[in-house]
Amino acid sequence: MTENNNQNKSPYQKGKNGNNMLKPPKFNAYWLYGLVAVAVIALNLLNIGQTPKEISWQKVKNEMIRNSDVDRIVVVRNLLEVNVYLKSESLDKYPSLFESSFDSPAKAGPHYNFPIGSIEQFAEQLNKAQENISEMNRIEPEYTTHENYFGDFIGWILPFALIIGIWFFVFKRMSKGAGGGGGGGNIFNVGKSKAKVFDKESNINVNFKDVAGLAEAKQEVEEIVEFLKHPQRYTKLGGKIPKGALLVGPPGTGKTLLAKAVAGEANVPFFSMSGSDFVEMFVGVGASRVRDLFKQAKEKSPCIVFIDEIDAIGRARGKNPNMGSNDERENTLNQLLTEMDGFDTNSGVIILAATNRADILDRALMRAGRFDRQIHVELPDLNERREIFAVHLRPLKLDPHIDQEFLAKQTPGFSGADIANVCNESALIAARKKKEIIEKQDFLDAIDRIIGGLEKKNKIISLQEKKTIAYHEAGHATISWMLEHAHPLVKVTIVPRGKALGAAWYLPEERSITTKEQMLDEMCSTLGGRAAEELTFAKISTGAQNDLEKVTKQAIAMVSIFGMSDKVGNVSYYDSSGQSDYGFSKPYSEKTAELIDSEVKILIDSSYKRAKQVLRDNMDKHSQLAELLLEREVIFSEDLEEIFGKRAFGKPEGLGEKKINPIKEEESNNEDNEIKAV
Ligand code: ATP
């Protein structure tokens, strides 16, 4: 019986545990306001209450006035209607008045009402109706105006209420979107800092062991952790604890990782925020967030504040405030400068910041006393790459023969993030092949894929196109084999990958400075593809677009930045401070611009001529290489050695690979690919 009852009940009546119970909705005080408002509006709209009954003027005239039942007649001017009040002793004569309890008039009146055309006309009609009545018994009309306080109130208030409502709604939405962390949800929290706080309780499982290489950078930040742990060790000698350190370096080199390791190692609270978190569409919010961040930090001192991508707010302030500069960002920066070195001493608060672009940061931010230390985090060298591989290979199931040294040699120019990506990609490739362990070939495939993109085996390429690509790539390979300063070649392929239809892969030397000769040789080998097409087929194609773009940029840089042109001289029009207005005006005259153009052209033309000459001198070997490439699709430096003999300028050490000079599809002038391709 009970069971049946239970089944019949609506599922909504079931409690949390499935037992049947009626859950009363939670009472909310706002309901009362709502109810009152609804009642008032309903009463007003329905006009429920004591209202006079409608009647015609004829009836009033012929019955009520004639029988002297009328006590008062009130004309409502603005409504053009007349209210009739009957004498109390005459009410009995009109029993229909109080028949219904719902819409009967008040006892005191008005009892009846009727509309009129105009006030003057009604006055005349009333006079006429009372012609035969004695002066004493005549009724003089009273005049009044109807005041609708409620309607007026609603008319005034409603638009304001609507505007305020919409305003609140929009702001709430925006502050929610901008919120997150501490500042979310409430419009009044929009100026609160959104820093994430990590302290002893938070579980950060990154420590210095997870950061491979970066020995100097690690030492510097380790020292900061030491400062915070044992300040007296430094202060007793009179030294001051540094205020901040700026981590500078290319993307993916481990700056954020280093900061995370500091958070994991230092036993002090760690505030983490990104530069863009300060920026909001409201004016003044950035500065207020900076203030709030430092207020919180001071309360928890000693502690570390980490601002990632500080260039979002720290960019150099413009000279001309009206021309494209961002006032809000500058206010935020000013506040940051004040907080970092204001009158208040932030004892025990150390600021760490990271950026890829130290060159565009405001100089005031970089001065000693704010960021006392700049820690450069560079792309890893061979040894560091090996160490980073060691960290990221740890969790993988590997073929025991995998050699970290070999992998490090394969990846010149890779950042820590790239290496992490290679390791992950190789695991995915191995898994795709349903392997139990990751093998060397999976790593090589992962590296190829990361540099060149996905292999496109099924791409439809005509025989003639394939031939052009083969001769083009063989052109690059031949020249780079023959010239002293060109990067040693490792592999040439005509297998399409990503947007590239073919590519020559090199092992770039790890050099810190580049000479003019090296640049010229590289330009020459880059132009080798087009030169080969012209010499072999007497036709040129769009395949060289990427090469030409690279060479042009290189030549412009040589002339206008590196001062490598005799005619233009030792000048550099590059502004490393990022504070120039070169966007609007060039720092040189029209005449110099023409000279730069002509020098660029001379450089490129002469390199092209040289490339053709090298190819002409090695015509047979070049075609032999191209034919071999057509046959095998991929050839290695060993094959080149067979054709050309030992390279006069040394053989590449490892099988390190870096792809440059890819021949590309016609439509491909995509920047992303350029980065991968170079
Ligand atoms: P960005 O400037 O683009 O923010 P970043 O320098 O802050 O880059 P991170 O976010 O620190 O780079 O690094 C990305 C990933 O690369 C890390 O999560 C880590 O897996 C890997 N990585 C980078 N450098 C190292 C390193 N030295 N040791 C181990 N792993 C590293």
Fold-level CATH name of the largest domain: Methane Monooxygenase Hydroxylase, Chain G, domain 1
Distance between the terminal alpha carbons, to the nearest Å? 80 Å
* Count of discrete alpha- or pi-helical segments spanning 4 or more residues: 23
CATH superfamily of the largest domain: Peptidase M41
Shape: elongated
The Rg value, from CA coordinates, equals: 43 Å
Strand portion: 5-15%
Number of strands: 15
CATH class of the largest domain: Mainly Alpha
CATH architecture of the largest domain: Up-down Bundle
Q: Which blocks of ≥5 consecutive residues have pLDDT under 50?
A: 1-21, 178-184, 651-662, 664-678
Helix content: 40-55%
Structural class: alpha/beta
What's the story with the biggest beta sheet? 6 strands, mixed
Biggest sheet strand line-up = 6-8-9-10-7-11
Bound molecules: adenosine-5'-triphosphate
Write a compact overview of the structure shown:
The protein has 678 residues and is of the alpha/beta class.
What are the SSEs and their pairings?
Layout: H1 2-8, H2 30-46, E1 53-54, H3 57-65, E2 70-76, E3 81-86, E4 112-115, H4 119-129, E5 142-144, H5 149-178, E6 196-198, H6 215-229, H7 231-235, E7 244-248, H8 255-265, E8 270-274, H9 285-299, E9 303-308, H10 311-314, H11 327-341, E10 349-355, H12 363-366, E11 373-376, H13 382-393, H14 404-410, H15 416-432, H16 440-452, H17 463-482, E12 489-493, E13 500-506, H18 516-537, H19 545-560, H20 590-617, H21 619-632, E14 634-636, H22 637-644, E15 658-664, H23 671-677
Parallel strand pairs: 1-4, 2-5, 7-10, 7-11, 8-9, 9-10
Antiparallel strand pairs: 2-3, 3-4, 6-8, 12-13, 12-14, 13-15
Helix pairs in contact: 6-8, 9-11, 13-14, 13-15, 15-16, 17-18, 17-21, 18-19, 18-20, 19-20
Adenosine-5'-triphosphate is lined by residues 211-214, 251-257, 354, 356, 388, 391, 416-417, 420.
